[in-house]
Q: What sequence folds into this?
C-alpha cells in the first residue's frame, strides 16, 4: 500500500500560525473587555458614595438656608420688641405729662391764694374750696372717684377696719365713720378706705343679773 504524501508549503505553515495568533488575540481581547466582578463592585460603591456625598451637600445647603432664615426672624423680632418697648415708654411718658399739665392750674391757684396777703379768712376758705373742686374735677376726668362708704356694710374687699365701736342705732358690721377715703380708678381699687365699723353693744353685768332674776321669777 502506497501512502500519498501531501506537501506542506511554507505559505501554508505561515497562514496557520497567523490564524492561531489571531485566535489567541481575539480571546485575550474578549477577556479584557469583560469587567471583573471586583471592579464592578468598586464602581457601584464609588457611585453610592458620590450620591451620598451629593445628598450631604444638599442637606448642608438647606441647613444654612434655614439658619439664615432663623437669624433673620430673630433679628426682626428683636427689632419689634425694642420698638414696642419704646412705644410703651413713650405712651407712659405722654400720659404722665398730660396728667401733670392738668395739675398746673391747681398749682397756680394755690400760689395765687398764698401770695394774696390781703385776703380775709373767708376769702381764703372760698378760694381753697374752689381749688379743691377743680382738683376733684381733674381726677374725676381721669377716671378716679371716691368710694361711698359711710352707712354701708363693711366690705373687706373695699375697706380696712381701724376699730369697732358699739352702736345702738345701727346694725353691727356697718361703716359709721371714714378716717381716710378710699378711691377707685376706672372701677379698680386705687386705695382702700380706712373705716370705723359698728358692733353690737355688750350687756352689762347688772342687766344680765336682772334678766336671770326675771327668768327665775317666771319659773316659780
A:
Amino acid at each position: 500500500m502506497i501512502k500519498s504524501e501531501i506537501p506542506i508549503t511554507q505559505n501554508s505553515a505561515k497562514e496557520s500560525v497567523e490564524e492561531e495568533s489571531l485566535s489567541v488575540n481575539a480571546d485575550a481581547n474578549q477577556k479584557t473587555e469583560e469587567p471583573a466582578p471586583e471592579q464592578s463592585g468598586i464602581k457601584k460603591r464609588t457611585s453610592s458614595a458620590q450620591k451620598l456625598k451629593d445628598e450631604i451637600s444638599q442637606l448642608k445647603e438647606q441647613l444654612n438656608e434655614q439658619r439664615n432664615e432663623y437669624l433673620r426672624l430673630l433679628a426682626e423680632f428683636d427689632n419689634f420688641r425694642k420698638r414696642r418697648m419704646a412705644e410703651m415708654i413713650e405712651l407712659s411718658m405722654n400720659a404722665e405729662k398730660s396728667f401733670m399739665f392738668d395739675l398746673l392750674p391747681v398749682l397756680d391757684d394755690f400760689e395765687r391764694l398764698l401770695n394774696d396777703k390781703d385776703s380775709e379768712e373767708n376769702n381764703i376758705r372760698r378760694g381753697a374750696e374752689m381749688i379743691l373742686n377743680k382738683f376733684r374735677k381733674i381726677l374725676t376726668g381721669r377716671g378716679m372717684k371716691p368710694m361711698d362708704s359711710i352707712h354701708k356694710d363693711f366690705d373687706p374687699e373695699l375697706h380696712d377696719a381701724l376699730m369697732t365701736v358699739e352702736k345702738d342705732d345701727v346694725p353691727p358690721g356697718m361703716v359709721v365713720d371714714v378716717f381716710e377715703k378710699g378711691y377707685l380708678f376706672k372701677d379698680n381699687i386705687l386705695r382702700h378706705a380706712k373705716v370705723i365699723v359698728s358692733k353690737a353693744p355688750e350687756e352689762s353685768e347688772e342687766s344680765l343679773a336682772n334678766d336671770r332674776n326675771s327668768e327665775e321669777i317666771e319659773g316659780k
About this structure: The CA atoms of residues 7 and 61 lie 82 Å apart. The chain is about 65% helix and 15% strand. The longest helix spans residues 37-115.
